[in-house]
Design a protein that fits this description.
Radius of gyration: 20 Å
CATH superfamily of the largest domain: Medium-chain alcohol dehydrogenases, catalytic domain
Largest sheet: 7 strands, mixed
Number of helices: 10
Structural class: alpha/beta
Order of helices and strands: EHEEHEEEEHHEHEEHEHEHEHEHE
Number of strands: 15
């Protein structure tokens, strides 16, 4: 098969290679997917750059956990009727060496989820890490129908899906962007928009939610902690999946007096049942046409450029088109 890989951490253009590898074979309980698309997430580029200094977990890594394609082989204990099924894939490179930046990938059968006929492979390849993280952030602490959900970074991969999932389940959604110039990219039919660089964002949020917000989906906890405390309703939950500063500094007492909960979200380590529920709900929302993901596709042999595009930031999700 044709694949992209790296054997040492470093800059994308330096360490990523594209070439031929042996085809993987499914083991017991696995399916093999012939991929059409490989989704790229910031976590994938951070792993390649060894951002936490852990070193290479395997001698060779095929990056990316998310993708879409067709099941073309199954292992023992998997129904052979799945062969030919269109699927979206999650967790392919979660605690595993070989992900989706290749023509073939092997995953446990439950991590290849049937993709509804009306949903494109591009969208399917973008549901995994960001969708499951968004689902956990929105729903891990109970139903949100009739409540107000604040989504920071609403144009990001996680934030945009969190906003759409929250609206799908009956919440009022407020979404923030860093700059007022980004407001035009936010769908007003789903989200009340607030720019963090314009005026007093806490007052703007309070005008929409005078009693405070019940769930806060946080992409930069270290930057937004004081704002979150100022707009949170009593007993609200701050669900944080990222932070700029690894040691956030925040005022303890306002959060204590409001009885806030801070939930940390590490997507690779969610309980299996939570991932499966997220996969079911994401598939249902996509089938109903409630998930819209702007996508830009690049060919597999431009993977280094694609990684750099993810690192520099874009309003579109970057996916790789896998040659057949």
């Amino acid at each position: 098969m044709l694949a992209a890989w790296y054997e040492r951490p470093g800059p994308a253009a330096v360490v990523l290679e594209v070439g031929e590898m042996a085809d993987p074979e499914p083991g017991a309980g696995d399916v093999r997917v012939r991929l059409t698309r490989s989704g790229i997430n910031p976590g994938d580029t951070k792993k390649r750059g060894d951002w936490v200094g852990y070193g290479m977990p395997y001698p060779r890594v095929i990056p990316h956990s998310d993708g879409a394609g067709l099941v073309d082989a199954v292992g023992e204990d998997v129904d052979a009727s799945r062969i030919g099924e269109r699927v979206w894939v999650y967790g392919a490179q979660s605690y595993r060496a070989f992900g989706t930046a290749a023509q073939l990938t092997v995953v446990p059968a439950r991590q290849a989820v049937a993709l509804p006929g009306g949903v494109t492979d591009d969208v399917g390849a973008c549901l995994g890490i960001p969708g499951i993280t968004a689902h956990r952030a929105v729903f891990a602490d109970g139903a949100i129908a009739g409540k107000t959900v604040l989504v920071h970074g609403v144009l990001g991969g996680v934030g945009s899906l969190a906003a759409q999932l929250a609206a799908w389940r009956g919440a009022t959604v407020i979404g923030t962007v860093r700059r007022d110039s980004d407001l035009s990219h936010v769908n007003e039919a789903i989200v009340h928009r607030v720019a963090l660089n314009a005026g007093d964002p806490a007052s703007a949020i309070r005008r929409i939610a005078p009693d405070g917000v019940h769930r806060i989906i946080e992409v930069s906890f270290s930057d937004n902690a004081d704002l979150d405390a100022a707009v949170a309703a009593p007993e609200a939950v701050i669900a944080a999946y990222a932070t700029r500063d690894g040691r956030p500094d925040f005022d303890f007492w306002p959060m204590l007096f409001a009885n806030l909960t801070i939930r940390m979200l590490g997507s690779d380590d969610f309980p299996p049942a939570a991932k499966e529920q997220a996969a079911d709900d994401l598939t249902a929302a996509a089938r109903e046409g409630r998930l819209h993901v702007p996508v830009e596709s690049l060919p597999l042999d431009r993977i280094a450029e694609a990684h750099d595009r993810v690192d520099t930031g874009t309003h579109k999700r970057i996916v790789l088109s896998i040659p057949q």
